[in-house]
């Protein structure tokens, strides 16, 4: 299996918007009301929102491909782009999403390892992420990769307040 990872550019916005929308919906639609799901998707994954995110100075997106087929993506943040004030020594993994048919093939681990490598290169002392408390598979994966729960924050899916747990890996 030939796997390649490349950094996204502004030219990738349509593809990034589509994969973001699709993977988020496929991952969480069964655990949320259709109304709240549509409300969130129509806010978080518009072309305008993705353009804004990819243009942010300290946010970076990466596509992962199997052979030449887009299989998933990664979004990382540093500095002021982090979704929580975690300090300049922190590196946030905001999103790791893999298309259903490519899951369980090590792609998420590959993207996570890329993020950790970037954090080390930037002399960060910790990598952190937020994960929905009901996303048991992801929580188990992050624990296996050395992350520990350090807190929680609210996340809104439409009008429903949900809890994301904060997980940190010290470098």
Q: Can you describe this structure?
A:
There is one protein chain. The protein has 171 residues and is α+β, with helices and mostly antiparallel strands. 35% of the residues lie in helices and 35% in strands. The protein has a seven-stranded mixed beta sheet with strand order 1-2-3-4-5-7-6, with helices on both faces. Helix 4 links the parallel strand 4 (90-98) and strand 5 (126-132). The protein is globular and about 40 Å long. It starts with a strand and ends with a strand. The model has no long low-confidence stretch (mean pLDDT 96).
Q: What are the main properties of this structure?
A:
7 strands; Aminopeptidase; 7-stranded mixed beta sheet; alpha+beta; 171 residues; single chain
Structural class: alpha+beta
CATH C-level category: Alpha Beta
Helix content: 25-40%
Major sheet: arrangement of strands: 1-2-3-4-5-7-6
N-to-C CA distance? 30 Å
And the CATH topology? Answer: Aminopeptidase
Domains, number: 1
Based on Cα principal axes, name the global outline: globular
Q: Describe the oligomeric state of these chains in a short phrase.
A: single chain
Estimate the mean pLDDT confidence: 96
Task: Tell me the major beta sheet.
Answer: 7 strands, mixed
| Element-by-element helix/strand order | EHHHEEEHEHEE
| Fourth-level CATH superfamily | Gcn5-related N-acetyltransferase (GNAT)
Number of E strands: 7
Number of helices: 5
Beta-strand content bin: 35-45%
- Report low-confidence residues grouped into runs of 5 or more: none
Q: Gyration radius, to the nearest Å?
A: 15 Å
Indicate the CATH architecture: 3-Layer(aba) Sandwich
